[in-house]
Amino acid sequence: MSTPSSEPASAQQTSREEGEILEIRGGRPLVGRVDVKGAKNFATKAMVASLLGETESVLRDVPDISDVAVVRSLLEVHGVGVVEESEGVLRLDPTGAVSANFEEIDAHAGASRIPILFCGPLLHLLGQAFIPDLGGCRIGDRPIDFHLDALRKFGAIVDKQPSGIRLSAPEGLHGADIELPYPSVGATEQVLLTAVRARGTTELRNAAIEPEIMDLIAVLQKMGAIISYEPNRVIFIEGVDKLRGYDHRSIFDRNEAASWACAALATDGDIFVGGAKQQEMLTFLNVFRKAGGDFDIQEDGIRFRRDGALRPVSVETDVHPGFMTDWQQPLIVALTQAEGVSTVHETVYENRLGFTQALNKMGADIVVHPEGIASPERRVPRRALEQAAVISGPTPLHGADVVVPDLRGGYSYVIAALAANGTSIVRNVGIIRRGYEKFFDKLTALGADFDVIG
Ligand code: EPZ
Prior knowledge:
By secondary structure, the chain is an alpha+beta fold. It has two domains: 9-36 and 252-452, Enolpyruvate transferase domain (UDP-n-acetylglucosamine1-carboxyvinyl-transferase, Chain, Alpha-beta prism), CATH 3.65.10; 40-249, Enolpyruvate transferase domain (UDP-n-acetylglucosamine1-carboxyvinyl-transferase, Chain), CATH 3.65.10. It has 14 helices and 23 strands. The strands form six sheets. Strands 21-22-1-23 form a four-stranded mixed beta sheet, covered by helices on one side. α2 (40-49) runs parallel beside α8 (211-223), α5 (119-126) runs parallel beside α7 (185-195) and α7 runs parallel beside α8 (211-223). It is globular and about 65 Å long. The two termini are 24 Å apart. It binds ligand EPZ.
């Protein structure tokens, strides 16, 4: 677990994980064991939830990634005490929470979207909140209209300014009747974190129901919230006057587990992912098997490997329980080695297939159709574009000099370089540290042949 800033714990890690440029010598299968910790897309939200409690919270299995470090810094500038009790165990004390000034918040926001989730808890706690310009991966324009519309319905006054968004709630916050235009993960979390302390009942329709959302509901229920999860994506929240701290072990990181599984396919390797569980990965495992992968579900993890020649598949990303958008980028690298033509239709983000250009530079044959598959209906309202990739394989990959565009795209480039014949230079790999704990150490454990050269 990192020290107060985003510095990794060990000196050895510092020297390796500060590197922004990797030289990778490919052509070797990845074989061995990696262990995934708590989910990046859950632990950060549970940390924000601690602001709602009147007593300390303990969060376990917290991954050592910069997204967690960013949220930790933001909590600390708001006066929340954050102590690392032991590796991966955070004790969060909100009793000293205070308003922070704009400059401090802005300095600590980093390339993360999590700050937007501070709105509800800070409005309950302090009657005001300031949210800086948000970061996050460049995979689309990442609007927050669903969030702001919901906060207004709770009674918040939202004032968008050039430097960020100022919010206030002079009359406090009341329950709301909210139907999301799309089952947005972030907007669902926004509503949950605001409704639990609002006066009265909130009804949320068309909610996201990802396992990470359900784990956040479990955390809030531990704190004293009354949340009922109804059929057809409806969630009722009865506001309560006060909440206490929680003690919770984070759900495992499905995205990281799926990433390593795709690495085993792409490099013809054999990777045991400790901590991975079948239930939350059912859809991924079906696609993995159809693509020519084999897996063994064991007590403490899942073993992933190739089962003969890779086969083409047709995949459409969707909200849970569909095929997660975060899984498609590593999968596409493996599909470049499948014998036939695969299609991946990205329906969640409008620009999450741009990373394929660099794969083509490495010898892949991927055509991206910006209009997606010919279907006039768009999942995300007012979405101009979806995209669809057509991947023809198998195409031997060769080394190239590439620059990481985003978190999952960056992971995919490293895997492609490991699958390629020859040497690759992968730049801007610091982005990968945002979401993959001890990434270089894990590659080393799996026998990857690389050096950090810059
Ligand atoms: C979360 O992003 C995850 N990030 C993403 O993971 C993940 O891909 C995404 O959920 C979908 O599962 C975190 O949890 C930190 P959304 P989020 O709101 O909450 C549009 C990764 O690699 N939208 O479900 O931002 C939006 O543009 C990251 O770990 C609006 O139009 O996702 C997108 O097209 C990448 N208006 C779609 O909805 C809004 O106000 C889904 O976004 C909000 C979203």
